[in-house]
Amino acid sequence: MAPLISPIEAQKPQDGKQDDRVHHGGRSSVAALPLVGDVGLLAFLDDVKSHTMTKTVERVDAADCVLFLTDRHCYKLRREMPLEQTHRLSLVQRRERALEEIKLGKSFAPDLYLGLVPVRLREDGPYIDHAAAEDGSNRSVRMAGTNTDPVIEWLIKMRRYDVSKSLSKSVEIYRPNFTECHKLADLIAKSPEAAQSVNYQKADVWQQHLAQMLARFSPVVRQMEQKTKKQTLRACLNRALYRLGALQPHLEDRSKGGLFVEIHGNVGLENVVQTPKGLRLVNPAVGQIESSSQAWFGDPLYDLASLVAEMRARGLNRQANWVFSHYCNNLLDSHAVDGLQAMDLYLFVSAFEKARQLSELLSVRSSGNSEEEEQFRGYMQTARDSLVQDEAKLLVLGGSTQANRSHLARLLAPIIGRMPGAAYMSAYQELLSLYDVRHESDLPPSAHRRSVWHLVYRRLATKAQMALEAGYSVILSGAFDSPSSRQNLTLLQQEVGPSIQLQAFHLFDPVGEQKASGHGERVQPFIRDLEHHSRAVAGKPPFEDSLSRDSNLILGSAGEKLDWTNWVELDASRSVSMLVDQVLGHINPVWVPSTEGTLH
To answer: Does the structure show a pLDDT above 90 at 317?
Structure first.
């Protein structure tokens, strides 16, 4: 464990610079102060008598900090020399980073992060000055309060949370379901009030940050190539460096468009904790590159890539896709989806960084940890796969009910296209995002107006086009039972061009749709907008409408023939595994059907 700074060391000038100590009144005599020492300071914070109104204190050691858990609060002490850093952090630097963490923490877990409190030293020993707590809002204040006792350390004060209930431990027992993955994606997508746009010049800082991380990978690559005698990692790193250079104009455009914000920078299952109020993100990355506490201004898609990369490395491929898809589907700014241009680079950097950390950890241990070695291999494979190109495809799922379409789409998306699979975008979810609600019951009656649904399908088409242009496959799910919704598909097909494979599937429900003729044949009536409109007026949401149609012809309300007619019919009453096989058989002729029930 890295040593903590002693009270005397905290008051000495470092590297010939100005003394970090803040002088108040006439109390400036260092010699008169009793020496607490590294062990003494830890022992003081670990002592229940040092904390008011508490019966127990639990200590948790981490790479860059030490946590002290009391009955109601958690006090976080940042290390003087965090793991993987070669220079010591002065008292002022530790305070600045603690304030930065509180600032970011209030964006991602506002109910947990409370403020910064000093540990002061007087003649009879150290004490925690709760009256001088700061919340990080005034960065110019050197020290809160009027206390003249010198500060020897700073503590981040949080509401106590159960550190044992991190999602990293939960996934070892069971895999997150579809709804839980949506909640994970919502953690990363901060609200507009929390997101603070950054000047476009910060794009240079973000690119330098990425370049520094890639530079740290070169020694790891050389070491691993010597062991394996393979050059694939060097090729991957060179590809990532090329991608960074090619993406420079794109990153600058996103920064100028206000899409760069203060990001968490350390998103992982270990930092997702369950609280009584839901999932929260803790321990944001602050100042991990060189000595800057401002390095984590950047692209929020990097946070998404960090979580997706970890889930892929752990074998949670479906869950990784569901997080990825919901994040894209839930973006209010449709044009933000163009950030997928950089998704492959972000996946590579985040996966390789975690592999590098594990590599250093394993190298200093005499005996290997099988679990950590497996995670290391998973991250390395994820880093390689992130840069692999694949043909982008557009699949449209229409008809039946939203539930049936969603069930099929959530199984198809993870196995189509490049990592982490196709972006599954739902008209139903787009409508909820548009009104910023989580459930259909929270929608106002006006949400089912025809003009609103026109906007929903237009936004879906815009997002799909950007994802396809970035090289990612897309699955669009919706009723598509009006001319305007289908015309959006026609226009999308024209925009993306013939290089993108497109295929539309219509799910029909035989029960209620089948009408027996004299010869026992099924008759499928044409869909008209008047029928669609009448159902909406009657209070039945359009996305729950059953859609029945001729497989070779779609007519609008005026009977005009539309361009988009290559729909393939699927029987929604069949098992979902059979439907998956049917779809994959159409988009990939060499697909070998799975056995019954494989995907259940």
So the answer is: yes
Rounded CA-CA distance 572/584 in Å is 16
Residue 56 φ then ψ, to 5°: -140, 155
Residues 6+ away with beta carbon under 8 Å from 395: 412, 416, 422, 473, 474, 475, 476, 502, 503, 504, 505, 583, 587
Q: Copy the structure tokens of residue 125.
A: 């020993």
Beta strands per DSSP E along 427-516: 474-477, 501-508
Cβ atoms of residues 182 and 322 within 8 Å: yes
Instruction: Give the pairing of strands 151-159 and 501-508.
Output: unpaired
Q: How far apart are CA 246 and CA 72, in angstroms?
A: 50
Compute the distance between CA of residue 56 and CA of residue 89 in angstroms, rounded to an integer. 30
What is the reported pLDDT for 550? 36
Residue 575, token pair as written in the block = 């098992």
Angle at which helices 483-496 and 450-469 cross, to 10°: 20
Q: Which residue has the higher pLDDT, 420 or 549?
A: 420
User: What are 321-345's pLDDT values in tens digits?
Assistant: 999 999 999 887 777 888 999 999 9
* Residue 553 DSSP label: B
Phi/psi at 524 (nearest 5 deg)? Answer: -110, 110
| Residue entry with tokens 């012809």 | 553
* H or E, element range at 113: strand 113-122
pLDDT for 19 beyond 60: no
For 100-131, write each residue's pLDDT tens digit: 889 888 888 989 999 999 999 888 889 998 88
pLDDT digits (tens, 9 = 90+) for 185-195: 988 865 443 44
Tell me which residue has tokens 């919340």.
135
> What pTM, to 2 d.p., does this model score?
0.81
Distance, in Å, from the CA atom of 488 to the CA atom of 349, rounded to the nearest integer, reads 36
Condensed to tens digits (0 to 9), the pLDDT of residues 59-74 reads 988 877 889 999 999 9
Question: Is the pLDDT assigned to residue 487 strictly greater than 80?
Answer: yes
- The torsion angles phi and psi of 532, rounded to 5 degrees, stand at -60, -45
Query: Using an 8 Å Cβ cutoff, are 570 and 579 in contact?
Result: yes
**Residue 420 phi/psi, 5° resolution?**
-100, 30
Task: Extract the tokens encoding 325.
Answer: 């898809």
Pairwise CA distance, residues 143 & 128, whole Å: 14
pLDDT at 497 (0 to 100): 84
Instruction: Return d(Cα 600, Cα 593) in angstroms, integer.
Output: 14
Query: DSSP secondary-structure letter at 568?
Result: E
Whole-angstrom CA distances from 177 to 303, 321, 323, 412, 423 are 20, 12, 10, 16, 17
Residues 6+ apart with CB under 8 A from 205: 294, 295, 297, 298
159 near 303, Cβ under 8 Å?
A: no
Strand 393-399 relative to strand 474-477: parallel, antiparallel, unpaired?
Answer: parallel
Q: What sections of 91-176 are H helices per DSSP?
A: 91-108, 167-170
Which among 474, 489, 347, 469 is positioned nearest to 421, based on CA atoms? 474
For residue 118, say if its preceding peptide bond is cis, omega within 30 degrees of 0: no
Q: Rounded CA gap, 200 and 256, in Å?
A: 5
